Amino acid sequence: MSKIPILILAAGASSRMRGADKLMQTIDGEALIHRTARIARDTGQPVLVALPPAPHPRHEAIADLDIRRIDVPNAAEGMNASLRAGLARLPEDAEAVMILLADLPEITTADLRKVADAFRPDSDTLIWRGATDNGKPGHPVLFSRSLFGDIARLTGDSGAQSVVSAHKDRVALIPLPGLHALRDLDTPEDWAAWRAGNSPES
């Protein structure tokens, strides 16, 4: 497998949780941020986690894992502050980077490996993206090294969507099971519905 570090974006404020931290919500007794970091680590790839500045409970929640924690002092700017901070700390020999949101409760190590295994450094494709079986794009999103500069110039809270849009004809969708690529839990209602076995809107 090519060397593809996984950058987990976990510096957001959980503003829609009305005072709770969605990444500290538990699944089978495990904090969501720990679950996300653990399944990323289990791919065997380097893992970097963009976090609010320490001290913060999210740091403590993943302290037992052999991963790199990155403080994002300007996290309030939005997601792109985390992207820039993470890219600046990638291993020099990284051929690509996998961007993984921290709030995907159904994503698995096998899913991450499937997206990573689709990467071909000599391909015309520049972006590989997890998707549903019917082709709805989601996460994670893997970017070829040739796009690192474009991502590093992003500002605000748009994520790398503008980079994806600029290269939409060079994106490969990788189908993942069920709603693994889409399911996120942003509100207390989402969490309650998901735990009850329902399907919150994503």
UniProtKB/TrEMBL annotation:
It comes from Jhaorihella thermophila. It holds the Pfam family NTP_transf_3. It comes from the Bacteria. GO terms for molecular function: nucleotidyltransferase activity. Keywords: Magnesium, Nucleotidyltransferase, Transferase. Residues 7-169 form the MobA-like NTP transferase domain. The keyword Nucleotidyltransferase applies. SUPFAM superfamilies: Nucleotide-diphospho-sugar transferases (SSF53448). InterPro entries: MobA-like_NTP_Trfase, Nucleotide-diphossugar_trans. This is CTP:molybdopterin cytidylyltransferase MocA.
